Amino acid sequence: MNNNERADTVCSTGEFDEDETPFVEQLKRRKKRTKPLDSPPPTKKTLVDNIQAEPTNPTSNIHKPPPIFLKYNCTSNYIQLCKDIQENIQPATFKTKSGPKHLIILTDTPDGYRAAVKYLRNVKIEFHTFQPKEEKPFRVVIRGLHHTVPVELIKTELEKLGFKIRNVSNVIINRHGTKIPRPLFFVDLEANENNQNIFEVRSIMLGIVSVEEPYKKTEIPQCQNCQQYGHTKGYCNYGPKCVKCGRDHHHSQCTKPISEPPTCALCGESHPANYRGCTVHTDLQNKKKDQPKQCQIFPFGDSPPGTLENACHQKSRPCSQLSSSASKHR
Ligand SMILES: [Zn+2]
Ligand SMILES: [Zn+2]
Ligand SMILES: [Zn+2]
Known about the structure:
Helix content: 10-25%
Region (Disordered): 1-48, 295-330
Number of domains: 3
Number of helices: 6
Shape: globular
Domain Pre-C2HC: 151-221
Largest sheet: 6 strands, mixed
Oligomer: single chain
Pfam families: PRE_C2HC
Distance between the termini: 11 Å
Strand content: 15-25%
Radius of gyration: 22 Å
InterPro entries: Pre_C2HC_dom
CATH class of the largest domain: Alpha Beta
Order of helices and strands: HEHEHEEHEEHEEEEEHE
Bound molecules: zinc ion
CATH topology of the largest domain: Alpha-Beta Plaits
Protein name: Pre-C2HC domain-containing protein
CATH superfamily of the largest domain: RRM (RNA recognition motif) domain
CATH architecture of the largest domain: 2-Layer Sandwich
Structural class: alpha+beta
């Protein structure tokens, strides 16, 4: 996995805009996996309860690789393109499906998928894809731990119990512009058969905690690179579009004066491209509500079969709402 891809897998930090998602409240309403306050207090003298995660081998399940969506303007010579891809991914093979807006490449193995992505990036073909299932972290929320406990320490304590931790981040809510850390931590674990055991952890650094499943957002992800909906920046190989002015550059290079109104890269109206009231977003949302689940994966109408697992793989939020407070472990 290259750095871009990995960066995206860890970019969803703990910061929340309170008016966007009453995350904490929704989490409270969810069925708890554990009832730590009703449970007997920890009796062990270690900082973490002595619940050892059973050592198991990493999951050996091989998931179907995600599809790769190529823009049609990159695929004028279909036969040559197929030859080139085949040469670069062998011994893996692939099939294609031509949708209304994209040529879709369906590789048969994870190695073939990675080789195809690498080749397409090298030759600068515009495409987007999704995070492979085996690379998705297993995310849980730790509730009840003091917000000042360093994330590195939490990581170490959980690793002592046999868990493979990719990332720990404190949940920070944004209340009227003020950032407020909460006694909640997101923990991303590498795929492993012992991951369910983390729900049994009752105490970390003397804090009585509960480990819960996070609330799953149903928002359509938006790419922070090209601004399109349905994929995220780590899996995007399109040219950048500015979220503020809609032109072909990253927003960090934008020279638009503040006095000038924004221009949406998606609809051309006078708002930033991540405005949720944009007609492109509202149309997609309405379409999503009307469609059966299988069709919701490909909001732009390209729907190869058997790829349900690739839906909405990452949370996406405007750059302004992202916090860099999370510790990023690679
Ligand atoms: Zn994109
Ligand atoms: Zn700009
Ligand atoms: Zn718009």
